[in-house]
Design a protein that fits this description.
single chain; 176 residues; alpha/beta; Molybdenum Cofactor Biosythetic Enzyme, Chain A; seven-stranded mixed sheet; globular
């Protein structure tokens, strides 16, 4: 068996699917949750920096969740104002910035909800390869990055509608 990956754990939620929104509500009962302001993200305001300051003050006490997820109505409004492409890209990039910042402050276990968000995070962290581990939910395994510059990391990457209501807790329980 491989050595456990220590260090703090964090969750990022960029998906707006019904399942993810329920998973965020559930997570609020077990860990601190920060909701990013999508308007401020798209306007280029310092939401990523704010999220990292917030996280670094709390990670010593246990996992945190940072969510950019919005209700479908909010998403529609955002896209109407800024264009679908621009809004989506700004949010994905902010989440990738946050993931990168979390890595720099010692996070080595990262759960990411949202297909586009997961893609942006993996690209930004330049993770060369993965070993596939235990299944958290059907189709969502724990991944162990190998050969990464920062050392081994554990990740869980899921598209919106995967996983039960307890997904974030379930993922963290398997990511040791």
């Amino acid at each position: 068996a491989m050595a456990p990956v220590g260090g703090p754990a964090a969750c990022l939620a960029g998906s707006c699917s019904q399942a993810t929104l329920q998973q965020i509500v559930h997570a609020e009962s077990i860990m601190p949750v920060l909701h990013l302001d999508p308007e401020r993200v798209v306007a280029g305001k310092e939401e990523a920096g704010r999220a990292l300051s917030w996280a670094s003050a709390r990670l010593a006490d246990g996992p945190v969740l940072i969510a950019s997820s919005s209700t479908p109505d909010e998403v529609t409004r955002l896209q109407a104002r800024h264009g679908r492409e621009a809004a989506g890209q700004a949010i994905e990039q902010a989440m990738a910035d946050i993931a990168d910042g979390l890595l720099h402050i010692g996070v080595r276990r990262l759960v990411v909800a949202g297909g586009e968000t997961s893609g942006a995070v993996v690209d930004r962290l330049r993770l060369p390869g993965f070993l596939v581990g235990a299944e958290i939910a059907p189709g969502v395994p724990v991944l162990r990055s190998v050969g990464a510059h920062a050392g081994d990391m554990l990740l869980a990457l899921k598209s919106g509608n995967f996983g039960g209501a307890n997904f974030f807790a379930d993922a963290l329980a398997l990511m040791r």
